[in-house]
Write a structure and sequence with these properties.
The protein is an alpha/beta fold. The protein has 2 domains: about 5-125 and about 280-295, 3-Layer(aba) Sandwich (Rossmann fold), CATH 3.40.50; about 130-275, 2-Layer Sandwich (Dihydrodipicolinate Reductase, domain 2). The protein is about 35% helix and about 25% strand. The chain has 9 helices and 14 strands. An 8-stranded mixed β-sheet has the order 8-9-10-7-11-12-13-14, covered by helices on one side. It has a 6-stranded parallel β-sheet with strand order 3-2-1-4-5-6, with helices on both faces. The termini are far apart.
């Protein structure tokens, strides 16, 4: 018996949404059904490219389409809160790009709404679903590198300094922490399985009052810590290293989207590769679909508590570096 196709609606047909749409092509029981953009031609072009059945110009029209099983949101994160809220109030399940919102208060409000409405909500932290992270977790759980004591990671590229660009735009919630540093935070939380006990952060702020270079040290229980740098100013190694008492694990360059990791112990060095089936987005999509079909309101892999913890850490960092958005 063939399962009926899961129909996705898409808000924000831009660059990130391309990865989502391409990933859907390797999921047999899913399809891109509808695309919405206030730019009519952009919606039509995207829909034609990925064989979506229909397009809309108003978000309010998409969320009341009863043929849509869930909505994927890929707009700039300044707009996530209002768009998620619109979907949840219409009873539509949501998979939304990271960060879920701009701050923890917004995230908490939406989680409360999702539960009240009985509707699924998940932050699309695709990294945590990648096959290589499953292998890294197996190594960590086995204790092969001993007790993990230290994490070191970086995420940095030379970004053209265009103060009108999304990354530098204050009104669009620009800044390197919410755009890049979120990955360093969420993977640190994933490794340790708890929240930091203290945080020390410093940053360079632009004249548009967004951070373009941020360095953070997070202290956890039992003397463990995670330190990371995220930057628009320089290209870093862009790896994530996990150091234990008996060895270490390196998640390779572009750790947030890699398929490679190396295990180093006292007796061996092993590098493995776990290639994607498509863009890598397919794994988080399948998780969301599985949860929705099972009637769940959240994923156990990226739970509401996980997202809220990450948002709270980033709130603390932004408070320390003096970076507050005028619309908050």
């Amino acid at each position: 018996m063939t399962m009926e196709k899961f129909r996705w609606g898409l808000i924000g047909p831009g660059r990130i949404a391309e990865n989502f749409a391409q990933a859907l092509t390797v999921i047999d029981d899913a399809e891109l059904y509808a695309v919405v953009s206030r730019n009519k031609q952009r919606a039509i072009s995207f829909a034609d490219k990925y064989s979506a059945k229909t397009t809309y110009q108003q978000y309010s029209e998409l969320v009341v389409d009863d043929k849509i099983d869930a909505v994927y949101i890929a707009t700039p994160h300044r707009f996530h809160y209002e768009q998620i809220k619109l979907c949840l109030e219409a009873g539509k399940a949501v998979l939304c790009e990271k960060p879920l919102t701009v701050n923890a208060a917004q995230s908490q409000e939406l989680m409360n709404l999702a539960k009240a409405q009985g509707v699924f909500l998940m932050e699309a932290v695709w990294t945590r679903f990648l096959p290589i992270y499953g292998r890294v977790k197996t190594w960590l759980d086995s204790g092969i590198i001993g007790e993990v004591k230290s994490l070191d990671s970086n995420f940095g590229f030379c970004v053209p300094r265009d103060l009108d660009d999304r990354m530098y735009n204050h009104d669009l919630a620009g800044g390197v922490l919410l755009d890049m540093g979120i990955y360093n935070v969420t993977i640190s939380q994933w490794v340790y399985g708890e929240n930091p006990q203290s945080i020390q952060a410093s940053a360079l702020l632009t004249e548009t009052d967004v951070d373009e270079h941020t360095a953070v040290n997070m202290s956890y229980s039992n003397g463990r810590h995670s330190q990371f740098t995220c930057s628009f100013l320089v290209k870093h190694r862009n790896d994530f290293c996990i150091y234990g008492t008996k060895g270490h694990i390196k998640i390779h360059d572009m750790f947030w989207c890699t398929s490679d990791a190396t295990l180093v112990t006292e007796t061996e060095k092993l590098t493995i590769s776990e290639p994607f089936r498509a863009t890598g987005f397919e794994y988080e999509i399948e998780e969301a679909m599985s949860c929705i079909r099972a009637g769940l309101l959240e994923s156990s892999i990226i739970s509401h508590a996980d997202t809220l913890a990450t948002m709270t850490v980033m709130d603390t960092i932004r408070s320390q570096i003096g970076q507050k958005y005028s619309f908050e």
